[in-house]
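User: Modeling request: complex.
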Amino acid sequence: MLNTAGPLMNANKVRVQDTFWNRFTELVRDTVIPYQWQALNDEIPDAEPSHAIRNFRIAAGLEEGEFGGFIFQDSDLAKWLEAVGYSLAATPNPALEEMADDIIDVIGKAQHKNGYINTYFTLKEPGKTWTNLYEAHELYCAGHMMEAAVAYYDATGKRKLLDIVCKFADHIETVFGPQHGQIRGYDGHQQIELALVKLSQATGEERYLKLAQFFIDERGADPNFFIEECKQREGYSYWTGKQEPIPTVQQMAYNQADKPVREQDKAMGHSVRAVYMYTAMADLARLTGDQELLAACRRLWENTTKKQIYITGGIGATHHGEAFTFDYDLPNDTVYAETCASIGLIFFAQRMLLAEAKSDYADVMERALYNNVIGSMSQDGKHYFYVNPLEVWPKASDMNPGRRHVKAVRQKWFGCSCCPPNVARLLSSLNSYVYTSSPAENTIYMHLFIGSEANFTLAAGEVAFTQQSSLPWKGEVRLEFTAAPASAITLALRIPSWSRGQAVLTINNVKTEYETLNGYAMVNRQWMPGDTAQWELALDAQLITAHPQIRVNAGKIAIERGPIVYCLEEVDNGTPLAVVSLDYTKGLTSQFDANFLGGAVIVEAEGLADETTTWEEDTPYRPLTLQSETKKVKLKAVPYYLWGNRGEGEMTVWIRKSMA
Amino acid sequence: MLNTAGPLMNANKVRVQDTFWNRFTELVRDTVIPYQWQALNDEIPDAEPSHAIRNFRIAAGLEEGEFGGFIFQDSDLAKWLEAVGYSLAATPNPALEEMADDIIDVIGKAQHKNGYINTYFTLKEPGKTWTNLYEAHELYCAGHMMEAAVAYYDATGKRKLLDIVCKFADHIETVFGPQHGQIRGYDGHQQIELALVKLSQATGEERYLKLAQFFIDERGADPNFFIEECKQREGYSYWTGKQEPIPTVQQMAYNQADKPVREQDKAMGHSVRAVYMYTAMADLARLTGDQELLAACRRLWENTTKKQIYITGGIGATHHGEAFTFDYDLPNDTVYAETCASIGLIFFAQRMLLAEAKSDYADVMERALYNNVIGSMSQDGKHYFYVNPLEVWPKASDMNPGRRHVKAVRQKWFGCSCCPPNVARLLSSLNSYVYTSSPAENTIYMHLFIGSEANFTLAAGEVAFTQQSSLPWKGEVRLEFTAAPASAITLALRIPSWSRGQAVLTINNVKTEYETLNGYAMVNRQWMPGDTAQWELALDAQLITAHPQIRVNAGKIAIERGPIVYCLEEVDNGTPLAVVSLDYTKGLTSQFDANFLGGAVIVEAEGLADETTTWEEDTPYRPLTLQSETKKVKLKAVPYYLWGNRGEGEMTVWIRKSMA
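Assistant: Request completed. Predicted assembly structure:
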């Protein structure tokens, strides 16, 4: 059943005000955005230069020089601008807005007469536009600029960038399509599809939605566009600089173009491409009522989030192609779990929540957000993980080439720096992920427990309330209404999977029963200004096991507490970390430590440490009978998102299970 | 203390006659050698062509065509010829000898007037000989031909190939050296060093030993030869076909040329290169009395066999560069453990045993031989593993690119087919590894328990005995003397580490006490023809743990029984194999099964299987509290060397440890 009555909430109508999250949004506003501005301007000492702004200035004729960076470098600036838009929406900042306006002027100057924007093709291969969609990311960069324009317009009301990207979109619409002389193709890296949906919604232009649908419908159709395009180029590859064999249809799975999207049922290929595409598919299914497309979205959601997801909300098991591998193959040490992929998964979850309100989507969204995504950024906002491992041995990251992609410490900036600006734009638009509403059904869904002031326009009238949340450390959430219509409306409160159904509702201090639907407590009543609703969720540390098909986690357990996944670090538990095991028969104790990296609940457990002192250096293997007793130890587990903030050391999420 | 009094035993004087090993030597003689002949002639359907013989025929002017295969393809033919030599020594075979003579004629025709042999440079880059030692394997191929020549001469007394390689060696001696106009360098892939030692011993030519020593002494000296050579070529790389950055001294660790060999103390870089070099170093240390070189050998032995070895005797933890990584980094699933590397380790062990008789060398030799090496070959002798994993999930080998080098089934032949002919030459020269002797000290060391007829010439006179061995299934070994001198000699019987010192000596049916030295029972007496010595070794299944620094094996145990390492296979224990654990508090039962792949002892254990039935497909993670009881199961472990002979399936050597 399509929830077509529930459009995307305007982000301006929800304002995050939350003890836990303010720290992140302030960090993004005060540190990350300025820092990334420096990075985009190549001003970070000892970090790889970005070239992104310089490329635009050269293309605009404001500077002399050559194109630098990746072929898709433009997108980094776009993602930064998008983050700026969200940030300005939350907190006006004239100086920042002026910086943004200035660079938007530069973008306008770099735009071709026909609307085309791409500094790589402008500067390096002017005659080659639209000849290598398979590799060149032109539409991907276009999409990011569209998302930036929508965000900036929403925040400031300024149309300049929006007009720039509309002109570009109009140009793209003439170039791509089923008509003779048009390119019947699509981009090698999906992104423009979801951006065109946003642009359509921001401008009211149905044409942009249709163009998004064209790209989605064409993808994977026979004959395969990429293969035909490669033949046209005689196999010339941008990446290798020479002729390569024409790829096979099977190889197109890397770009999710091996078969039509409606026939896909397993998450395959490059994981960021995949989830960006699924996001657009869910948008289109919802907005066009396409049941077949929605069914494909559900299948791909199930496969991604039930068989190919890490407990941290990471996806993509291999760095070879930054890709999915296959069901239940989730190695903790050679893992990829790219930050951008988890962000794309959050987009996908959000769109599925708009299509159908089921708490499973929000459970996964919350898992990815509180663990993989915020864990990718250092506490100072200036260092990032691109790969988010569940097990780290720094020496192996250094000396075993198969683990070299797994960094043991967050890096300053990356040559291919997709992840840091992606984190910035997600965290600065967090308000979009907390609620959805169905105006026609007079229903407000609360998906995330994040303190906020929220306003909704339902059929019955205006609703306003504040949410106060003690998450992630405690399970108490409190709503207070400041405006409500004169008739009954439904407040749908998510019952998170980690509460195991133990969720108590108290309205105006009276404990109240409720009915549940798809994982939400459905509370239908006439609310009055001043009414309060308390939502108390069981939030305690739990031991978690993995599906037996996930072979690497056999005999191991992880610790979760509410939405937070925990890990053991060498700094607390010694080395080698693998010698300790957790006694699952004993309880876990949780305690808030205000001094721990900005304040966090630490979980302690009883454990055993294998005896190591009687091992001689020259004995790699010996009979078990020689092993002495294990000794009892206290284990200290810390939130996964905080790992690696206290120097370099071993880390593990999955811990061997033992019994004293 | 150098055991300079103990030269290499002449292989012709030991004849293997052993229930367990005859099967392998017959397989090599009757199947492997003919099959590899077909392979070298490109006659195996559906396998990658070798080109090796065709290259020689073209170079000899007997055929038209172009060079094919790897730049070091010549070595495959050389290794085959070497195996033929050993096989003919054990079992005359006129037809095989004729085939060998014919191809030796071809090799002679392919030899340049100045002695040079290499079909790649003859056919493809005639003007470029000796310009790319770093990459081109010219001396490596030369070394293999020398080893073949020595083996063939020893077996047949025919000098033709020996004369060919001596002419080649004489040429090399003019090209390489410290004199002006000579190349002060060495090969990118060590091998000629150990071959020149053999050639020196076979011909009595001290010059060849000196040339080996030159190569060893120069290696890693400053300025670095490879770097200087790369500069000369302006960075041109054979492998990439273009100019590459000049490598750094650190990168020379891949070729063990980052520092002089006497300063090396960790096994680094390409593992086959490393152990071939260590072998030559041990030869030279022994033959020249070079204590500094022997000390380096001891250090490198310690590091390789105490910190960088798998329980199966495999070495080399990564497929990136087929290389060592660092101490205790021994992943079971992304492992390399190349067959050739274990064979090279056996060479190294043999040379160390000749330098100083310590049972540790033989323990490691035996471990590599009975597990990694013979496990690399299928029961039909026609399929091989290049990589010898300790944990296999066939689907991951297929679909996770980081594990694609780990094949789940043995392959027919490899484009780079170094391993199969290496196995053939080792197994057909097994007689060289059973004993060493010190004629001056009238001592015979028995290192391996392999049925054989052996003759030794000691200072005191001739000794002859037969060994009957019930290994690896039982621990009873029996010697019967057929000739002995009139004075006392010492029989040194190895006390294998797996016997935990429980080794009972019975002479002429009388239990006899003995003294031990360096892991050997030293039995000094005057033996008479007809005397018997029984050597009873405790040989029972044991549970083994790994050093706590080997993180991947934490909480796991392996099963060993005598020299044989065991594993669990899916065909016997179900899937996922990871759900089972072994109850270490219960006993192991061993039973010989005559019908199991030619007969083998199977080990059974009590185990637990994690409950899998209550897991829904759509639940990747769930609280431990929902987990049902484990159920008791019988585990069936089979010898590692026999894994993968009953279809494709999961396999593991290391098993989770549990307690019911």
